[in-house]
Design a protein that fits this description.
- Keywords: Membrane, Transmembrane, Transmembrane helix.
- Pfam families: DUF1003.
- The protein folds into two domains: about 25-125; about 140-170.
- Helix content is about 70%, strand content about 0%.
- It is built from five helices and no strands.
- α1 crosses α3 (about 75-135).
- It is elongated, with a radius of gyration of 47 Å.
- The termini are far apart.
- About 0% of the residues are buried.
Length: about 180
Amino acid sequence: MNTRQHRLDQPLEPRRGLLPRPHYDPESFGRLSERIARFLGTARFLVYMTCFVLWWIAWNSLAPASLRFDEYPFIFLTLMLSLQASYAAPLILLAQNRQDDRDRVQYEQDRARGERSIADTDYLTREIAGLRLALNEVATRDFLRSELQQMLKELDGHRDGHREGHRDGRRPGGDYASRGL
């Protein structure tokens, strides 16, 4: 039984092995893998690889027997191509995963930007509706003119009535004077 108890609220001490663990920067390794994957997906790589394989087969088929290093079934060539493919596949997957992560971040930013746009549009729509309602309650120039003309007609009517009342023997000012106006 282990005499030393591990506490869950404290991190474990790092274990030291016989050999030090290699440390690498995942970001720089990811950028390198993307560059390699980008190159592997080009026509230039296909042309280079085709030329290399054709040169290999031609050399090991047509060169003098003493200079050949990989005879007919070309096992060493097959081994090299398999090794290249075994490294290329994970590098391509790593590059695709990084691109997926960037796409996901971009999608989330686009969605947040869209939500802000919708919220801003809703706010502006409510503000415009409020302004329209407020403008309906504001007196327009035509409304004010009609009201002033109506008041002038009423005042003219009172003035005419006041003149007739003065001729009748009423006090000047009529009802206005008694009201204190």
